[in-house]
Design goal:
- The chain is of the alpha/beta class and 385 residues long.
- It has two domains: 4-126 and 312-335, Rossmann fold (3-Layer(aba) Sandwich), CATH 3.40.50.720; 129-308 and 342-384, Dihydrodipicolinate Reductase, domain 2 (2-Layer Sandwich).
- 37% of the residues lie in helices and 23% in strands.
- The chain is built from 13 helices and 15 strands.
- It has helices at residues 13-23, 40-49, 59-63, 79-89, 104-115, 132-142, 163-166, 188-198, 275-281, 284-291, 313-328, 339-355, 365-384; strands at 4-9, 30-36, 55-56, 70-73, 93-96, 122-124, 149-156, 203-210, 219-227, 233-239, 247-253, 256-261, 265-271, 300-306, 359-360.
- The strands form two sheets. The protein has a nine-stranded mixed beta sheet. The chain has a six-stranded parallel beta sheet with strand order 3-2-1-4-5-6, sandwiched between helices.
- Helix 4 (79-89) runs parallel beside helix 5, helix 5 (104-115) packs antiparallel against helix 12 and helix 8 (188-198) crosses helix 12 (339-355).
- The radius of gyration is 23 Å and the shape is globular.
- The model has no long low-confidence stretch (mean pLDDT 96).
- One of its GO terms (molecular function) is nucleotide binding.
- This is Gfo/Idh/MocA family oxidoreductase.
- InterPro entries: Gfo/Idh/MocA-like_OxRdtase_N, Gfo/Idh/MocA_Oxidoreductase, GFO_IDH_MocA-like_dom, NAD(P)-bd_dom_sf.
Length: 385
């Protein structure tokens, strides 16, 4: 296979963007095989924009058409696992949009089914993993350059969304339609990066605000305390009502500290001696000199790296990587099975806030689904009034 014929399920903002990239030849080894959407207006749009691309209003029909080798699921979150499984049943490769699903139980079903089809490519659209800054950050942490992690702190509030955003469609910002708010819509990339780079926490305690500054049922403000089980802790903060916004990720290690500013600048401070060694051997007199800035030698070195990012490149990189894996076995940037980790962490944050207590990972999946169903039932009752 030289050209992967991709079927796009859902021609919304993301699906439309991907279609444009592929149609204009920006994605190596990939062409548009078909487009599917249940909105009649999208059929008219495709007839004008992509007249030679088959259009379907039923994704099963598209999967069975013979026109696609692979699909991407740019649809509401609950549908990702189900649609990917249906693709695999028909020996079609699947690229799942983030998040992999709303709750871990359904994502496990997807992962388990995908495991029965090892010959098929299963990937997830974690495009931030292609960002050179975060790739460099992971390399530094994995190589132990700042030692063992003691604390992580990520404030990512650059998701400002006005009420008009939530009014775009009935499923958005609902428990029944979207399965949550900022944790499942805006922040999944950062939740994935956090666990990809720093590892999964063992416990979570969260303070979450639902409809805090927006007229929505789901969360628009999150503060989560993470316990990594080895003494290290973390804080994750995100929101959709900060119009100025902050993106600052800090990782403290025994041998130094890393600060990421605005996902563009990487500041690496490497201690010449580990903090543990300094603590064990530094005299109080030398410590006093340090406090007053009188130490004769530098205790750390600093490296600052600046990264530029061109819009769309990361998405194209994921699509090309997906195609390359199908064509020649190039390793995936993000295997589809990786999607469960971010969902597990988001579920833990939700469950902690609902129960008003610390929760351990892995969480009680049945309890999570039961609590989620309560939220959905309450939501339906309000709509019916």
């Amino acid at each position: 296979m030289k050209q992967v014929r991709l079927g796009i399920i859902g021609l919304g903002a993301q699906g439309g963007t991907y279609a444009g990239f592929i149609a204009t030849g920006k994605v190596k080894n990939m062409v548009l095989g078909a487009i599917c959407d249940i909105d009649p207006a999208k059929k008219e749009l495709c007839a004008q924009t992509y007249p030679d691309v088959p259009f379907y209003d039923n994704y099963i029909d598209m999967l069975e058409s013979g026109n696609v080798d692979a699909v991407v699921t740019t649809v509401p979150h609950y549908l990702h696992p189900h649609m990917a499984i249906e693709a695999f049943k028909r020996d079609i490769h699947a690229l799942v949009e983030k998040p992999a699903g709303v709750y871990t139980k359904q994502v496990k079903e997807l992962n388990d089914f995908a495991a029965t089809k090892p010959e098929l490519t299963f990937a997830i659209f974690f495009n931030q993993r292609t960002n050179p800054l975060y790739q460099k950050l992971k390399e530094i942490i994995d190589d132990g350059e700042i030692g063992s992690i003691r604390r992580t702190n990520w404030m990512i509030t650059t998701w400002w969304r006005p009420q008009a955003y939530y009014g775009q469609s009935a499923w958005r910002a609902t428990w029944g339609g979207e399965g949550g708010g900022v944790l499942v819509n805006q922040a999944p990339h950062q939740i994935d990066l956090l666990q990809w780079i720093c590892g999964m926490p063992k416990k979570v305690y969260a303070n979450v605000k639902y409809g805090y500054q927006r007229d929505i049922a789901v969360e628009d403000e999150v503060t989560a305390l993470l316990d990594y089980g080895n003494g290290a802790t973390g804080v994750f903060i995100t929101a959709t009502h900060d119009v100025i916004g902050t993106d600052r990720f800090e990782i403290l290690g025994d041998k130094g500290k890393i600060v990421v500013e605005d996902s563009k600048k990487l500041i690496i401070k490497r201690l010449n001696k580990s903090e543990s060694e300094m603590n064990a051997n530094m005299s109080w007199a030398d410590a006093m000199k340090l406090f007053m800035g009188q130490m004769p030698e530098e205790i750390y070195s600093e490296e600052v790296l600046e990264f530029a990012s061109v819009w769309g490149e990361q998405h194209i990189a994921v699509l090309e990587n997906f195609a390359a894996n199908i064509v020649d076995g190039t390793p995936l940037i993000a295997a589809g099975s990786d999607g469960i980790h971010g969902v597990a962490l988001a579920n833990a944050i939700h469950l902690s806030s609902w129960l008003e207590q610390e929760v351990e990972l892995p969480i009680d999946e049945e309890l999570y689904v039961a609590e989620l169903n309560k939220k959905i039932a309450e939501e339906k009752a309000l709509v019916a009034q």
